[in-house]
Batch of 2 targets.
Target 1
Amino acid sequence: MDKRTEILEGLISDTGLSKKAFAEKIGLPPTTLRSILDRGIGNASVDNVIKICRGLGITTDQLQTMANGEQFEPQLTAKDEKDIQKELQKMIEGLESNSGYAAFDGQSFEDLDEEDRDLLKNSLEQSLRLAKKLAKQKFTPKKYRD
């Protein structure tokens, strides 16, 4: 069995759904999914492989990376980016208020010069991105990360 097909089978199993239920969830006939898994994804249409990967929350590139035994690098989705921006905005608003999260040498966020505010904002944003990626990596089954 092709390594990519093996990984897909494991990921489908990890969803807790039967193969039939998973196929229905992603809009594939169960017989098509069974055929793909039996004969290998090399024989499947690109559209069907993309449907399966999307249903599992991974890209085809991530599937290939896992099959090559390379380190899994989670990608942030548009929803993740939106969530990061919302959280960043909350943090900045918290820093700007009188009862803010922190003061910097007795200065509020508003007292900082523009360059320092931008540096702090960028640092917070990168920290949120890293935290989101680490959380995604943590909740990806270990057998597909190593």
Target 2
Amino acid sequence: MSDLSAYAYEVTELGREDGGGLLVTFPDLPGVIGIGETTEQAVADGRQALFAALDAFKAVDREPPLPGAVRLP
């Protein structure tokens, strides 16, 4: 299993029209997100989603993207 702490994440504030709170995304794994009212909650939710995504790769015998493999423009 990959080290969860090796994956970088970004925290973005959601607008009121999107329900407010914070959104966590992982550039290396598009579509894996976390949400929460605080940074700590959003990061914890994101880590759970990241764990599930990495577990899904393992379940289908595929290697997940390496941390830092995706570079943002």
